[in-house]
């Protein structure tokens, strides 16, 4: 028997879509109100009943038809066309444009961390001073 994935293996398609959405089996299981083992069983099934497929599609944020017609080639084409359209239309829903420099945010975070450390250090100094006063009495 061939080791290639069968083109109509719904479980494999669900698995690949889940991976592309950067979702773990546990997260999908939680969204469906089940456990990770059930998701594993679904992903190993060649067929799934329509009701369960609709639930999985909803949890993955795709349509049932998208799962049924899924292929790697279609996905690459879809993402490329979506990216091109979003740039051309000025809408970047899938690829947000941030209006800040990440290095500036990193430096800002570092300064906040310094301030928190200084406050913690001052609190410890205040505690020591208070305890020394208590010992002198």
Concise description?
The chain has helices at residues 10-20, 25-32, 36-43, 50-60, 64-68, 72-89, 102-136. It is mainly α and 137 residues long.
Short descriptors:
434 Repressor (Amino-terminal Domain); mainly alpha; 2 domains; 137 residues
Commentary on this structure:
- The chain is built from seven helices and no strands.
- The chain is mainly alpha-helical and about 140 residues long.
- It folds into two domains: about 80 residues, lambda repressor-like DNA-binding domains (434 Repressor (Amino-terminal Domain), Orthogonal Bundle); about 40 residues.
- The termini are far apart.
Walk me through the topology.
Blueprint: H1 10-20, H2 25-32, H3 36-43, H4 50-60, H5 64-68, H6 72-89, H7 102-136
The largest pleated sheet is described as: none
Using only CA atoms, what is the Rg? 26 Å
Tell me the domain tally: 2
Separate helix tally: 7
Order of helices and strands: HHHHHHH
CATH homology-level superfamily of the largest domain = lambda repressor-like DNA-binding domains
- Structural class, please? mainly alpha
Might you state the CATH topology name of the largest domain?
A: 434 Repressor (Amino-terminal Domain)
The helix fraction, in percent, is: over 70%
In round numbers, the mean pLDDT is 80
Q: What percentage of the residues does DSSP assign to strands (E)?
A: under 5%
Cα distance, first to last residue?
Answer: 88 Å
Shape: elongated
CATH class value of the largest domain: Mainly Alpha
Task: Count every beta strand, where a strand is a DSSP E run of 2 or more residues.
Answer: 0
CATH architecture label of the largest domain: Orthogonal Bundle
